[in-house]
Amino acid sequence: MMIPATYNFSVVRGSAGPSQGLTLRLKNNTGTAEAPVLENMDFDDVRLSIYDKPVASAAKALIVRPTIDTGEIVVTNPGEAEVSWVPTAEDTRKLLIGPKNYYELEVRSSNDEIVYLLGVITGIGGLNDDIE
User: Fold this and answer.
1) Torsion region of 109: left, alpha or beta (phi above 0 gives left; psi -120 to 50 gives alpha)
2) Which of 1, 46, 53, 117 pairs with 107 at a CA distance of 20 to 30 A?
3) Residue 14 φ/ψ region, left for φ over 0, alpha for ψ in the -120 to 50 degree band, beta for the rest
4) For the segment 8-63, what is each residue's pLDDT rounded down to a tens digit?
5) CA separation for the pair 42, 26 (Å, rounded)
6) Domains, the chain, ordered by start
């Protein structure tokens, strides 16, 4: 059993680009805690599901769900199993202000679905609406 890592981060609402997203390398530890051996995970798709309430809540609403299949998550370094969510301004405007955006990053490979990472995204700002 793999226990997902937890990572909380902030995003400036209305901003776009790699500095506002998330980049990570998908690795398995095939060694021990004392002598880790990190190997690339196999994956067919990666999904980042962002909700307005903790995922266990029955009344949650999906804010955004970028995936590799939709092209909203990209493989930035195949040799290192590195993937990136590079959000658009439209994506970040959908985030709620404050630490109210709960996410899970799921890695899919063949029949396996593994929650690899989870946490809270804090939405900052939001006055920039791009209206000219």
Assistant:
1) beta
2) 53
3) left
4) 999 999 999 888 899 999 999 899 989 999 999 999 999 999 999 886 767 889 99
5) 8
6) 5-27+40-121 (2.60.40)
